[in-house]
Automatic annotation (TrEMBL):
<feature type="transmembrane region" description="Helical">
    <location>
        <begin position="35"/>
        <end position="57"/>
    </location>
</feature>
<keyword id="KW-0812">Transmembrane</keyword>
<keyword id="KW-1133">Transmembrane helix</keyword>
<feature type="transmembrane region" description="Helical">
    <location>
        <begin position="91"/>
        <end position="113"/>
    </location>
</feature>
<feature type="transmembrane region" description="Helical">
    <location>
        <begin position="64"/>
        <end position="85"/>
    </location>
</feature>
<keyword id="KW-0472">Membrane</keyword>
<protein>
    <submittedName>
        <fullName>Uncharacterized protein</fullName>
    </submittedName>
</protein>
Length: 126
């Protein structure tokens, strides 16, 4: 479980940092702007990463269905662009992209770790 949670949160933070970098490069802002963007997107990535890690660990323990992970986190990716105003639409789209990325990361980690756990358990039985 620790491996799944650490991997999930680490990859979510990397995704947040990459999105902050790309967003900064597209806006051609100053270095101070990049620090603000990095803090903003890393804080959002940590929220999505922690939520995804929790759901992934629940799925690995066979206590939550796999569809719960992309549904819970992916809801932000769908609802945020629908409920935005024209002035904040670019930032909302970046946040929605981060949510979709974290949903994919969490789902992939859950499937990979659970597959490894169950294949190891089945090998021990024989």
């Amino acid at each position: 479980m620790f491996t799944a949670a650490t991997l999930n949160l680490g990859l979510a933070l990397v995704a947040g940092a990459l999105i902050a970098f790309v967003c900064h490069r597209r806006s051609a802002g100053s270095t101070d702007d990049f620090a603000g963007l990095l803090v903003f997107f890393l804080s959002l990535a940590s929220v999505f990463g922690i939520g995804g890690a929790y759901l992934a660990c629940r799925h690995i323990q066979n206590r939550a269905p796999l569809w719960a992970i992309p549904t819970a986190i992916g809801t932000f990716a769908i609802v945020l662009p629908l409920a935005s105003y024209p002035n904040v639409a670019p930032v909302i789209n970046w946040i929605a992209g981060l949510a979709a990325t974290c949903a994919l990361i969490s789902t992939a980690v859950a499937v990979t770790i659970r597959g490894g756990v169950y294949s190891r358990r089945n090998a021990d039985m024989w």
